[in-house]
Design a protein that fits this description.
Elements: H1 7-22, E1 41-49, H2 53-64, E2 69-72, E3 84-86, E4 93-95, H3 105-113, E5 118-121, E6 129-134, E7 139-140, H4 148-159, H5 183-189, H6 196-202, H7 214-220, H8 223-231, E8 233-236, H9 242-252, E9 256-257, E10 261-266, E11 274-280, E12 283-294, H10 300-305, H11 312-318, E13 322-323, E14 325-332, E15 340-344, E16 358-364, E17 371-377, H12 383-395, E18 408-414, E19 420-421, H13 424-428, H14 431-436, E20 444-446, H15 456-470
Parallel strand pairs: 1-2, 1-12, 2-9, 6-15, 12-20
Antiparallel strand pairs: 3-4, 5-8, 6-7, 10-11, 11-12, 13-19, 14-17, 14-18, 15-16, 16-17
Helix pairs in contact: 2-9, 2-15
């Protein structure tokens, strides 16, 4: 939950908006430590901004490495894209954000550290009835064309050509031209048409996947995801992905500042410490740390809103990012038969992929009367707009003979900005090499999906490598 905004904060927000509008750098407020009593100054080895998958994992691993941390999170809980609903009637829980994890030693070790048991689940061939429908018109759509297994084998052979994509963006020079192709061209070049449908099912939130740069698609749907799609993923036995973050929250204790936002940072190279001024429910505090970790999407507008003292190189790099938008909802849909999955496909597009903005899928959950509705768009949409489009899509099912009523929304989550990307020319000209050079620049490190992939296991793997090399 965000804190109430004071008049001063409103003024700062207005100035920040003006700053973005005219692209003129503005210095953050000067730091005057004399304004803060000793009890309002927090000194740690590392300050982490963002308590999602990346920030929480970094905090736990640093504590295991005997470093002191403080974790700042704007929400009232940890977990980022993890969304869990507890049904008060049945006392069951339903995840409608992050759902699965690859079956990797790192995943098993992380959950095992908190004594959270895991089990394997198969995604393909679940006991569900699938209907493929054009949710613009209610027209049934036929099955995906091509041999999926054969195409996935060919796709995996392509992935094996780029082992450096497994962790981070450590690209060679020159960047292989295939990685810079629109993914639709890459598919045609290597005859991967039979894999497009399943890739679209897993790469939800990636925008128009046929126009998306191949590099990002290969990162998002990597070998470990292919293996999970075919052989099964891991989930907590409890069926509650928030259990991991509840356990992490308990372990970190007072080193977590929830409902808290950074109002400005100071990272003077001449000083031993980096500073972050944070608005918390108990008042403003100053965090003094030897190193700062940014575990949120490094979009320029987001960093400016928290008055991060960016230099020219940081502004130049972060200003190049664009992003996709992704939304999830949990709803009851009266009239939809239990166990039925609705996949949105188009009748008049290549590979039947629906034009965005659009519903991706309406999925069953372990709670028979609750369903997840997953939705994507290129440009950001309001909650009312997304729910309105979800509702219109559901009503189209009536034309297929399914007597549905409008969805009754139980929970909703906006995961935007989602996938952060830059154009192929920027990648070709060394963008990611320059971005990687920011690690450690001005005592600051970056650990989010933007630096690897929107995949919890891959984020954790990236963080492990960076911590081992930069946080002795």
């Amino acid at each position: 939950m965000r804190l109430l905004i004071t008049t001063i904060s409103l003024v700062l927000s207005a100035l920040s908006w003006l700053d973005c509008a005219v692209s003129v750098p503005r210095a953050p407020p000067k730091l005057d430590l004399s304004q803060f009593d000793d009890e309002r100054i927090i000194t740690r080895d590392v300050c982490i901004i963002g308590g999602g998958s990346a920030g929480t994992y970094a905090a736990i691993r640093l504590r295991q490495m005997n470093q002191s941390v403080v974790l700042v999170e704007k929400k009232n809980h940890l977990g980022g894209h993890v969304d869990t609903y507890g049904n008060p009637e049945t006392q069951t829980v339903v995840d409608f954000g992050v759902l699965y994890y690859e079956n990797l030693p790192l995943v098993r070790d992380y959950f095992g550290y908190f004594d959270i048991p895991l089990e394997k689940v198969l995604i393909l061939g679940q006991n569900t009835t699938q209907r493929r429908v054009d949710l613009r018109t209610g027209t049934p759509v036929g099955p995906a064309e091509g041999n999926m297994l054969q195409a996935l084998a060919a796709y995996s052979a392509q992935l094996l050509k780029y082992p450096y994509l497994s962790t981070g963006f450590n690209l060679p020079t020159p960047v292989p031209p295939d990685l810079l192709l629109p993914f639709g061209d890459f598919v045609k070049k290597y005859h991967l048409e039979g894999a497009v449908d399943i890739i679209a099912m897993f790469n939800q939130g990636a925008g128009d996947i046929l126009q998306q740069t191949t590099l990002y698609m290969l990162k998002y749907f990597g070998l470990s995801v292919v293996q999970g799609a075919l052989g099964g993923f891991l989930v907590p036995t409890s069926g509650n992905n928030s259990q991991l973050y509840g356990a992490a929250r308990e372990e970190l204790g007072e080193d977590v500042l929830l409902n808290s936002t950074v109002t400005y940072t100071h990272r003077n190279d001449e000083r031993e410490w980096a500073y972050a001024v944070v608005k918390t429910p108990s008042g403003d505090k100053v965090i003094r740390a030897r190193k700062l970790i940014i575990a949120i999407p490094p979009r320029l507008d987001i960093l400016k809103r928290m008055n991060m003292d960016l230099d020219d190189s940081e502004r130049a790099l972060f200003g190049q990012f664009s992003n996709t938008c992704y939304y999830t909802a949990l709803a009851r849909i009266p009239g939809l038969p239990e166990g039925m999955q609705i996949v949105n496909r188009a009748t008049d597009t290549l590979y039947h992929l629906p034009p965005q903005p659009a519903v991706y899928v309406i999925n069953t959950t372990k709670e028979p009367r609750l369903l997840t509705i997953l939705y994507g768009s290129k440009d950001h949409m309001t909650e009312a707009e997304v729910k309105g489009n979800m509702t219109r899509s559901v009503i189209q099912l009536r034309k297929t003979g399914i007597p549905v009523e409008p969805p009754e929304f139980i929970q909703y989550s906006d995961h935007s900005p989602f996938l952060l990307t830059v154009p192929p020319d920027a990648i070709r000209n060394g963008f990611y090499g320059h971005l990687n050079n920011l690690q450690g620049h001005r005592k600051t490190y970056y650990m989010s999906a933007t630096f690897n992939s929107h995949d919890s296991a891959q984020i954790w793997s990236f963080i492990d490598g960076l911590l081992k090399t930069s946080f002795p």
